[in-house]
C-alpha cells in the first residue's frame, strides 16, 4: 500500500509548484490588506478558502486522470494485490493531499494571527478551518466512489453537481425554510452551529463512501449495474445533512430562547408632568403620564444581532393602571430599544441594564394624578417578550428580578 501511495503522490509533483506559487501570491495579498489596511479578515478568508478547495479537488482529480491515462489500475490488479488495497490507498493519498493543503493554511494563518491578533476573531478562524476541512474531504468522498464506479469524467461532473447542491444547502435552503416557517432571516449563529457539526457529518460519511467505492468497483469488474451503491451513498448524504440542519435549527432556537428568557424586569414606574406650560404660581390642571420600564440581561449587547431582529417587549396593563392610563397594552421592538441608546450600564451583579419610556394617551387632573400615584401598583403591568424564535406560543412572560 505504501508503494501505491508513493506512486500517487509522485504523480502530483509537477502540480505542486503551481499550487505553492498561487497560494503564496494570495496569502501575500491578504497579509498586505489585513495588516496595512486593517481590513475585515472574515470576508477575505473566502479567497484562500475557495482556492484551497479548488486545488484539493484538482490534485485528487489529477491523480485519478493520470491513472486512467496510463491504465495503471489494470496493471496493478494483475499483481497479487486485492482491489480493496487499491481503493484504500487512493483514499489515504487523497487525505494526505488535503492534509498538506490544510497544514499550509495553518502555517500562513499563525504568523498572521501573531502579527495582527487584535483584529482576529478566533471563532471565525475556527469556523474557517472546520468549513474548509469539511468541504475538501466531502469532495473526496463524492469524487472517489463515482471514479471507481465509472471514470474520472463522470466523477468530475458528480463533484461539480454536489458542490452546487452544497452551496444551495448552505446559502439557499435554510433561508427559504426560515422565511416560510419563522418569517425571519436566519441569524448568523445558525451557521455557526451548522459548521460545527458538518465536519462530524463528513467523518460519518467516510465509511459509507469507502463501502460504496468497494461495492461499485466490485460490480464494475463483474460487469453489473453500479447505480445501487451510488444511489445509496447519495440518499445517506441527503438524510444525514437534513438531520444536521434540524440539529442546527434546534440549537439556534434553544440559544435564542435562553438569551431572551434571561431578561428580567427590574422596575416599572409612572411619572407625571404638566401637560402644558403654565405661568409661575399657576397650578397645572392636566398632567401627562409616562410609563418607564427597566430590565436587565446577562449578555444582550454581544448577542443582539442574533436575537433582536423580530423580538418585541410588550406590556399588558390591567387594574387601576388600565383605567387611569387608558391603555390595554403596548409594545416596543427590542432592536429599537438597543439602537436608541437606552443602555443604562451594568448592575451590581454584572447584568446589563436597559430602560425606555412611553407616554400614556390619557391626561389626568391633579386629583386623579394624586389618587393614582398614591395607589400605584407595578403588579398591574405584565411584561412579555415576543419573538417567532420562541418555541410553541412565541411569547414568554418575563420574571421580576429579585427585590
Structure at a glance:
The chain has helices at residues 2-10, 13-37, 41-44, 46-70, 72-76, 83-115, 122-149, 152-171, 173-181, 188-221, 227-261, 300-307, 319-325, 334-339, 366-374, and strands at residues 264-274, 287-297, 312-317, 329-333, 343-346, 352-364, 381-386, 395-397, 399-400.
Describe the structure in your own words.
- The protein has 2 domains: 2-260, no CATH class; 262-400, no CATH class.
- The protein is built from 15 helices and 9 strands.
- Strand 7 and strand 8 form a beta hairpin.
- The model has no long low-confidence stretch (mean pLDDT 82).
- The chain is of the alpha+beta class and 403 residues long.
- It holds the Pfam family ABC2_membrane_5.
- The chain crosses the membrane at residues 15-34, 46-64, 91-115, 127-147, 154-173, 193-214, 226-245.
- This is ABC-2 transporter permease.
- Keywords: Membrane, Transmembrane, Transmembrane helix.
Count up the domains: 2
| SSE ordering | HHHHHHHHHHHEEHEHEHEEHEEE
Low-confidence stretches: none
Approximately how much beta-strand content do the residues carry?
Answer: 15-25%
- Strand order within the widest sheet? 5-6-2-1-9
Largest sheet: 5 strands, mixed
Broad shape: elongated
Helix content: 55-70%
Would you report the number of β strands? 9
Distance between the termini: 72 Å
Number of helices: 15
Helix-and-strand structural type: alpha+beta
CA radius of gyration is 31 Å
Give the overall pLDDT as a whole number.
82
Keywords: Membrane, Transmembrane, Transmembrane helix
Pfam families: ABC2_membrane_5
Transmembrane segments: 15-34, 46-64, 91-115, 127-147, 154-173, 193-214, 226-245
Protein name: ABC-2 transporter permease
Amino acid at each position: 500500500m505504501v508503494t501505491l501511495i508513493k506512486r500517487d503522490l509522485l504523480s502530483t509533483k509537477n502540480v505542486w509548484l503551481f499550487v505553492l506559487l498561487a497560494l503564496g501570491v494570495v496569502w501575500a495579498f491578504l497579509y498586505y490588506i489585513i495588516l496595512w489596511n486593517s481590513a475585515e479578515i472574515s470576508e477575505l478568508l473566502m479567497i484562500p478558502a475557495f482556492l484551497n478547495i479548488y486545488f484539493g479537488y484538482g490534485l485528487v482529480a489529477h491523480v485519478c486522470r493520470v491513472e486512467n491515462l496510463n491504465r495503471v489500475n489494470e496493471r496493478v490488479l494483475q499483481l497479487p494485490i486485492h482491489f480493496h488495497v487499491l481503493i484504500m490507498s487512493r483514499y489515504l493519498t487523497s487525505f494526505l493531499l488535503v492534509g498538506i493543503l490544510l497544514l499550509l493554511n495553518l502555517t500562513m494563518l499563525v504568523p498572521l494571527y501573531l502579527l495582527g491578533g487584535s483584529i482576529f476573531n478566533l471563532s471565525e478562524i475556527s469556523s474557517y478551518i472546520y468549513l474548509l476541512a469539511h468541504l475538501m474531504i466531502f469532495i473526496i468522498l463524492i469524487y472517489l466512489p463515482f471514479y471507481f464506479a465509472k471514470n474520472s469524467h463522470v466523477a468530475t461532473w458528480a463533484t461539480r453537481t454536489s458542490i452546487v447542491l452544497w452551496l444551495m444547502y448552505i446559502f439557499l435552503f435554510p433561508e427559504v425554510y426560515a422565511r416560510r416557517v419563522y418569517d425571519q432571516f436566519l441569524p448568523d449563529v445558525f451557521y455557526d452551529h451548522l459548521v460545527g457539526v458538518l465536519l462530524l457529518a463528513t467523518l460519518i460519511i467516510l465509511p459509507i463512501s469507502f463501502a460504496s467505492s468497494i461495492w461499485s468497483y466490485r460490480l464494475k469488474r463483474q460487469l453489473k449495474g453500479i447505480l445501487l451503491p451510488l444511489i445509496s451513498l447519495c440518499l445517506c448524504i441527503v438524510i444525514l445533512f437534513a438531520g444536521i440542519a434540524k440539529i442546527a435549527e434546534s440549537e439556534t432556537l434553544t440559544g435564542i430562547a435562553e438569551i431572551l428568557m434571561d431578561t428580567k424586569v427590574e422596575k416599572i414606574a409612572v411619572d407625571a408632568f404638566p401637560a402644558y406650560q403654565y405661568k409661575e404660581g399657576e397650578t397645572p390642571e392636566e398632567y401627562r403620564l409616562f410609563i418607564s420600564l427597566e430590565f436587565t440581561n446577562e449578555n444582550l449587547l454581544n448577542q443582539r444581532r442574533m436575537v433582536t431582529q423580530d423580538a418585541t417587549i410588550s406590556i399588558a396593563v390591567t387594574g387601576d393602571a388600565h383605567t387611569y392610563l387608558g391603555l390595554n397594552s403596548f409594545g416596543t421592538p427590542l432592536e429599537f430599544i438597543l439602537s436608541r441608546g437606552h443602555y443604562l450600564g451594568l448592575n451590581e451583579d454584572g447584568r446589563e441594564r436597559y430602560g425606555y419610556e412611553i407616554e400614556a394617551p390619557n391626561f389626568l387632573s391633579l386629583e386623579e394624578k394624586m389618587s393614582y400615584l398614591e395607589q400605584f401598583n407595578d403588579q398591574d403591568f405584565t411584561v412579555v417578550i415576543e419573538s417567532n424564535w420562541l418555541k410553541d406560543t412565541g411569547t414568554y412572560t418575563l420574571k421580576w428580578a429579585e427585590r
